[in-house]
Amino acid sequence: MITLILIGLLGGLITAVSPCILPVLPVVFLAGGTGRGEDAKKPSPAPGGDGGTPGDHGGGAADGRGTAGALATAPPAAPERAPRNRRPYAVVAGLVVSFAFFTLLGVTIISALGLPQDILRYVGLVLLVLIGLGLIFPPVERLLEKPFARIPQRQVNKEGSAFVLGLGLGLLYVPCAGPVLAAITIAGARGEISSDIVVLTLSFAVGTAVPLLVFALAGRRVADRVAAFRRRARGLRIAAGCLMIALALGLALDVTAAIQRSLPDYTSGVQKKIEDSDAARQQLSGLYDGSNKELSRCEDGADELRSCGKAPALEGIDSWFNTPGDRPVDLKSLRGKVTLVDFWTYSCINCQRAVPHLQDWERTYKDAGLRIIGVHSPEFAFEKKRSNVVAGAKKLGVDWPVALDNDLTTWDNYRNRFWPAKYLIDAQGTVRYFKFGEGEYDKTEKMIRELLRQADPTVALPKPTGRVMDDLAADRTPETYLSNLRIRGYVGTPLVDDEPTAYRFPKGDLPLNKLSLDGTWTAGYEQFTAGKDARLAFTYRAKNANLVLAGTGKVTVLVNGEATKTISVTGSPTLYRLTDDKDARTARLELRVDEGIQAYAFTFG
Questions:
Q1: Are 417 and 410 in contact (CB under 8 A)?
Q2: Is the model's pTM score more than 0.85?
Q3: Longest pairwise C-alpha distance within the chain
Q4: For the chain, how big is the Rg over CA atoms in Å?
Q5: Which pLDDT score is estimated for 323?
Q6: What is the b/e burial string over 84-103, where b = at least 16 CB atoms within 10 angstroms of the residue's CB?
Q7: 3-state DSSP call for residue 297?
Q8: Tell me: the pLDDT tens digits for 354-387?
Q9: What is the b/e burial string over 400-422, where b = at least 16 CB atoms within 10 angstroms of the residue's CB?
């Protein structure tokens, strides 16, 4: 439980300083420094009394040395302390209460009452406008504070509008979502509220509150210490009110999203290290379905293609759009193509920043066999509304098929934890790579290109869209795994998984960076095992060629048809030097391999 609390606290702290909450910060800052206009104008009592009959400030009852003086003259009244401005605490408390409560129970309440999914967002916008009007027009503020009039403490009563402001901000607060917030929102959306989820939510809310409270207190301190702010208290309140109304309009018209998209996601690295660490995964694992465990064989943003199991089905989809007749897409119908499944939500700033890269890939590689499917798994209730999603997708330029995963069934099928998340599926329907969050677009594009070449070795790929290095255009042949699912550049008899099979070299010359088999081989995931009369050919460019081999036997090396050396192989997997030249050259390498020897991976230098 303590570990869960720490994860929630740290996740909240990171979220509260992420670029996604920047639009809220100016309002929190100014709200912390704006008191009631009449309070700002009230003069402090004079040190010697409170306006009554002045007493003897030098002796008598004032210092306790005389009784007669005490009877004759009333003691000077203690200076009346100005009411302490607790608005920063009220604003942040309202935000935390609102965000935590409605994140967990908002969907359940809305469904039970049959209200529109985006009603909470509208309520938040209305409250923000009302608070803005209250700062500009005091009678409106007094009206907002009436619900708090029954509370005995005058100061708590007076900060009612600040608490209401926090409630409104909490409804509009859309932070960058990592695994912690994902676990909370998903549990809330399903009504699966356990003690662990409550603890995680409260600790996350407290973690979020700390930086926001610091910001609000800074606003109060500036207002208290800077004379210009005290002299212009009324003008400051009007400016804060105008800012809140402008923020409400900006949120309603989605103007703030454009600003957020232009900012780098400077907290993503720290967020992943904490929220996606081994300890966090273990604590959060009970919040996810345990199926499709093969996906755990892959890691986020791996440097190579791997086999992550069969691609889970797109199930529990509410509806589709951007397809002919809004008909659903079956992954099986995309066999032979490379498919990118993108988990996103239209209001997620991280997802919005990723869209231009998806657009580039869809435009560049569609003719080569790439297909993109967007799985819209909502983070908040208003993101379940189809018209909202369609409008959001159109505004962002998303024109590939989109599935509305409102019940998060497909999200669970893929054991997903992030918005956005990209899963690459090969032509045989196997997940080969995934990337959580933003960044490493060059690596993802490189994986797309490799899968397209595996699907069709003859494909002519256009130039990369970004800074990705095209290995085929590099000065040397790239590392190549002898794996039935990770091999690149293979040509010849189609590979058969895990069964001894007779292969034949293709006729004619073998193109650069292509390899082929001849004789009997068993093609497995980790290695290829030589059988009777096993041979391997590879046209490469490099100074040297190397191969990891294991087993017992000999390997004869031929370069451009001429035998150059015989290697004795013995024991566990070891790297063997096949060729060694002074300068890089293009050559045809042929290996004649004894039966039983295992070959793992080629590297080139």
A1: no
A2: no
A3: 125
A4: 33
A5: 94
A6: ebbbbbbbbbbbbbbbbbbb
A7: helix
A8: 899 999 999 999 999 999 999 999 877 678 889 9
A9: bbbbbbbbbbbbbbbbbbbbbbb
Residue owning tokens 């290996």: 591
Distance CA 371, CA 334 (A): 8
Residue type for 185, please?
T
pLDDT at 359: 93
Which tokens go with 602?
A: 């080629």
Average pLDDT, the chain: 76
pLDDT given at position 480: 84
**Sign of the CA dihedral running 119, 125, 129, 135:** positive
d(CA 206, CA 202) in angstroms, rounded, equals: 6
pLDDT digits (tens, 9 = 90+) for 313-330: 999 999 999 999 999 999
Q: What backbone torsions phi and psi does residue 304 show, to the nearest 5 degrees?
A: -145, 160
94, 205 Cβ separation under 8 angstroms: no
Query: Please, are residues 535 and 593 in contact by the beta-carbon 8 Å criterion?
Result: yes
**Range among 31-35, 358-362, 440-444 rated most confident:** 358-362
Burial 461-493 (b: 16+ CB within 10 A, else e): beebbeebeebeeeebbbebbbbbbbbbbbebb
Which among 434, 426, 422, 410 has a CA at the least distance from the CA of 310? 426
The tokens describing 198, both together, are 């409550």
Q: Is there a contact between 132 and 242 (Cβ–Cβ < 8 Å)?
A: yes
